[in-house]
TrEMBL record:
Origin superkingdom: Bacteria
Name assigned to this protein: Drug resistance transporter, EmrB/QacA subfamily
Keywords: Cell membrane, Membrane, Transmembrane, Transmembrane helix, Transport
Recorded GO CC terms: plasma membrane
Organism: Amycolatopsis sacchari
Length: 451
């Protein structure tokens, strides 16, 4: 742990910048896609610019956490920044969509480390009870960066060129690497002579790749023989990967920890929260534009109440846990609040926009109050030795929820076009209802002042 308050502040500033870099690039290209198509052509393949980053990010998360546990989180984080910056440079010089998508794939590999390892660094530097307050703002940064990405991307594209969306990462990445080397405590990881679970990493990456490809295809074309076959192959790949990880001596994803009730329930809550909140986030602007006949700018502004709710939730729960140590009430109350807000949105379909904004803020507040807290609780239950793997596992499960939720809700949105969006919010409320069941099953434990 940093010995002084100055050291703690430097560590926090470092991890905020690193997290923002990884989160921004998930959404920053969205508003630049028309300009990219106008310059590079190939409109039929432009979706791969977005999908390639998401695919690599999800697939590489387990490996990033395991590598950090083995070789040291600081060392692997610096390498992740280097890969991210190098790929960003290549993205900026892309001459066709195929090269840009390939560079985005590599950028996502580095981005996985940027999103997973900061939380693992905190696990080794901050006591468990204080960790919730320390990680809370990082969760808020992730939420704000995800929503702000399209706005920043649009501004950079209009003011300069879409290429600066990627070149901006060069000075920011250099600053992040310098901060990591000076502010993050050195850790040496486990015995580097142990064999890395390469087979497990490849199998998990294959399963994650199949999930992203299948859900994207189903959202675009619906169910057909090709998507059905792809789904079956993905299920088989996931079963093989989990079976391998159960038997591996040093698994990339320690599925054996799921025998711990707390870790298992945290993973289920992360999955359901990802499906419920981040799934619906993708479709709020479309919903507002279609139902309320607003401009794109106004519909985008309806994301701000959700973001404000998330920021308030992660910070309030973090500081409360630091003071009292008790954490179980937050996932219970959070799931109930988010589920109630989603149900109200379904029942009050077509309500005035101020009412909609208030309900969206409650949806964000409820989910924000427990999503980041799950990381701290699972880290504490799993132990410091596998903090990176546990953190990566939760992030992997959450991103899986986001992917599946976006696909399922996307199918409901397609059916709702020109009609009621109530089924979308009903499905969201169902996710949080299941989450409430999981939250009620959590043990009534406390986080102590020391790790």
């Amino acid at each position: 742990m940093p010995a002084t308050a100055t050291g703690r502040r430097a560590l926090f500033a470092c991890l905020v910048l690193v997290t923002a870099l990884g989160a921004l690039d998930q959404t920053i290209v969205a508003t630049a896609l028309p300009e990219i198509v106008a310059e590079l052509g190939a409109p039929s393949r432009v979706s791969w610019i977005v999908t390639a980053y998401a695919l690599a990010l999800t697939a590489a998360m387990p490996a990033a956490g395991a590598l950090g546990d083995r070789f040291g989180h600081r060392r692997v984080l610096v390498c992740s920044i280097a890969v991210f910056v190098a790929a960003s440079t290549a993205c900026g010089f892309a001459g066709d969509v195929g090269f840009l998508a390939a560079a985005r794939l590599v950028q996502g590999l580095g981005g996985a480390g940027l999103l997973v390892l900061p939380q693992a660094v905190v696990a080794g530097a901050v006591p468990a009870r204080e960790r919730a307050a320390f990680l809370g703002p990082l969760g808020a940064v992730y939420a704000v960066a995800t929503v702000a990405g399209p706005l920043l991307g649009g501004w950079l594209t209009d003011a300069t060129s879409w290429r600066w969306i990627f070149w901006l990462n060069l000075p920011l990445g250099a600053a992040a690497a310098a901060l990591v080397l000076t502010a993050v405590p050195a850790d040496h990881g486990r015995d580097e002579r142990t064999r890395f679970d390469t087979t497990g990493a490849v199998l998990l990456a294959a399963a994650a790749t199949g999930l992203v490809l299948v859900t994207t295809a189903v959202a675009e074309t619906g169910w057909n023989p090709a998507t059905t076959t792809g789904t079956a192959l993905t299920v088989v790949a996931a079963a093989v990967a989990l079976g391998w990880e159960r038997r591996a001596a040093n698994p990339v994803l320690p599925v054996g920890l799921l025998r711990d009730r707390t870790v298992l329930l945290c993973c289920l809550l992360a999955l359901l929260g990802g499906m419920g909140l981040f799934g619906v986030l993708a479709y709020v602007p479309t919903w507002v534009q279609e139902v309320y006949d607003t401009s794109a700018t106004t519909s985008g502004l309806l994301l701000l109440p959700i973001t404000a709710g998330i920021v308030a939730g992660v910070n309030a729960s973090g500081f409360a846990v630091r003071r009292w140590g008790s954490w179980r009430p937050f996932p219970i109350a959070g799931c109930a609040l988010s589920g109630g807000a989603a149900a109200a949105l379904a029942l009050l379909d077509g309500a005035p926009l101020p009412v909609v904004a208030a309900l969206l803020a409650l949806l964000g507040l409820g989910t924000g109050s427990f999503m980041q807290l799950l990381v701290v609780v699972a880290q504490d239950a799993g132990g410091a030795r596998v903090a990176g793997a546990v953190t990566a596992g939760l992030a992997f499960v959450r991103e899986t929820g986001v992917t599946v939720g976006a696909a399922v809700l996307g199918a409901l949105v397609a059916r709702a076009a020109g009609g009621s969006y109530a089924p979308v919010f009903t499905a969201t409320a169902g996710c949080f209802a299941l989450g409430l069941v999981c939250a009620l099953a959590l043990p009534a434990e406390r986080l102590e002042s020391e790790s």
